[in-house]
Structure formats: C-alpha cells, structure tokens
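testing teh design pipeline on a random one, pls ignore if ur not involved
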C-alpha cells in the first residue's frame, strides 16, 4: 500500500477471538470489495492469550489491505480503539467488534448515512441477540442514563459498529473505558451525530468479554464525561457553586443556633447545629479552594501545551490558518 491513504479505515479490536477472525475478515473483505471501496483494515490484538495474532499475521501476509497491531498485554477495548484510530489513515473510520455479532455488510449503509452530512453515525442493535437480563436490560438502563447526562440521545451507546469522520475522531483522546462515549465526546467537538439500525447476530464461537460489572464502570466513566462536558474548562463553576452553597448552609445553621440560644435558652455548646454550621462552612471553603486549584490546572493544561479552547470547522478567505486553531 505504501504511502497511499485509503478512504476508509476499519478498526477491529481483538481479544481471544481465534475462532472468529478468519471468518470476520472474509465478511469484511466481501462487503467492502462489493461496494468498491478504497479501504484498509486495522486489527488491534489486545494481548490475546490464544492464536488470534498468529492468524492475524497470516491474514495480513495474504491481504495487503490489512495491518495488525499487537499489545504486549491486555489494556482493554478503549486502548485498542485508540491504537487503531492513531494508526488509521482513512478519511472515515469505522469500528466494529471481532465476535461476528456486528455485520460488516452494514458498513456501506453507515457510510451512505455519513455522506448525508453527519460526522458520526452510530449503529443501533434494534433487535439485539443477547441475554435479556444480563446484557440487554443493563444496556437499556445505561443508554438512557448516558443520553440524559450527555444530551446526545442514542439508543445504543454500547454498539461498537460506528462510522466517524477522521477529522472529528482524531481530536478525541481516549483513556480508561471511554470508547462507548465517543459520540458524546465528538458532539462536544461540534460533531453532528445520528444513529441507524444495524444487524446483530448471536455469538456462535468464543466467549463474551463483558458482564454486569461493566455497568458500575459505565456509571463512574459517565461522571467524568459529564464533568468534562459541562465544567472541563471552568471547574470553578462547579466547585465554587458547591462551596458557596455549603457556606450558605453553614451560615443558616449558625443563625438557627443563635436563634435557639436567645429565643429558647438552648446552650450553643450543647446544640449539634453549631458543629454542623462549622463543618459546612469549612467544607464550603475547601470546595472553593479546590475549584481554584482546578482552574490553575486547566490553565496550565491549555496554555503550557498550547491546547485550544475551541475548534474551528471552516474558515473562508483566510490566506493561512492561524496556528491556534489548527
């Protein structure tokens, strides 16, 4: 392939999928060749303990469109996604799972929807073929919570099959287990996000890597997304507001203590409201101080590293793009 940059990059995280990778690539190649797309496929082996990477190496040797990355150990799906995105050279990036539950035949449909003017097209497993109690129900609850918290309403955040414009995705930094929140992060960058139903097949080989424990991690990650989306560049608004509220509650508790002392003769040192007043006021001051420290950290992050606080989508009649907005 040399230095040729394809139109489409397909990123596939792989973890212990030796029974699926060969059939998966056959389906990817069949779907994309039939659509006459210029593409590459990037497999990222996330520290598999089976023969997955051996098979991927063999596939790459036979197919010049295939590139493979192997991690030294298991880092998780988000890290695998990030590595694939970093390696991708296409204008459009599509991600899908390696377990054959996503259907590569849906990729051309996602691209057609993307070309309608969207930046992110998220797959929606409307007829999901998973267990209702342990997979579908927690997923429904998580999707509703994420949609409410981020304001980006999607039916299926957990579906890996999504299409992205690389210009949007390259600006999204992934860590932890944030891959499921990519549409929300992209929306924060000004991306236009939509979804469409895609096929979903039951797993026929290998074992699922997901369980109920992920539900709790989703909730914790969602708190981070919510904070970054609402207060990532102005943390003092959160911590300062909380601190003022706590200080105000402390003052109210103190006034009630004085009222009970002079109105009813209740000794202040025997009144638990006095201790509550002091505790709330001190906690409020600490929260404000924490907000100021967070502000310093944000300023260092943006100024020392030259991080812009905004993204420009288009510039007209400019001879050169200012360094700050590139």
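output:
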């Amino acid at each position: 392939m040399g230095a040729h940059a394809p139109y489409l990059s397909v990123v596939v995280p792989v973890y212990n999928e030796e029974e699926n990778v060969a059939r998966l690539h056959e389906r990817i190649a069949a779907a994309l060749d039939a659509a006459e797309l210029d593409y590459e496929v990037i497999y990222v082996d996330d520290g598999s303990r089976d023969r997955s990477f051996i098979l991927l190496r063999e596939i790459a040797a036979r197919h010049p469109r295939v590139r493979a990355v192997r991690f030294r150990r298991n880092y998780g799906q988000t890290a695998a996604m990030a590595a694939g995105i970093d390696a991708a050279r296409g204008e459009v990036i599509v991600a899908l799972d390696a377990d054959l539950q996503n259907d590569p035949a849906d990729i051309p449909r996602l691209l057609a929807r993307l070309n309608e003017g969207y930046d992110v097209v998220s797959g929606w497993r409307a007829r999901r073929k998973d267990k209702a109690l342990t997979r579908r129900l927690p997923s429904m609850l998580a999707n509703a919570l994420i949609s409410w918290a981020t304001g980006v309403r999607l039916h299926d955040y957990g579906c890996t099959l999504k299409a992205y414009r690389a210009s949007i995705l390259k600006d999204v930094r992934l860590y932890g287990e944030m891959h499921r929140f990519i549409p929300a992060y992209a929306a924060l960058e000004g991306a236009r996000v939509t979804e469409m139903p895609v096929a979903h097949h039951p797993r026929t080989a290998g074992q699922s890597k997901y369980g109920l424990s992920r539900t709790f991690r989703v909730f914790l990650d969602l708190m981070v997304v919510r904070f970054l989306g609402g207060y990532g560049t102005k943390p003092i608004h959160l911590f300062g507001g909380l601190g003022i509220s706590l200080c105000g509650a402390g003052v109210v508790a103190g006034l009630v203590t004085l009222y009970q002392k002079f109105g009813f003769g209740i000794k202040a040192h025997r009144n638990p409201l006095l201790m509550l007043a002091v505790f709330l006021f001190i906690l409020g001051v600490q929260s404000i101080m924490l907000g100021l420290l967070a502000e310093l950290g944000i300023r260092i992050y943006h100024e020392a590293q030259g991080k812009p606080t905004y993204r420009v989508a288009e510039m007209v009649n400019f001879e050169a793009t200012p360094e700050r907005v590139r």
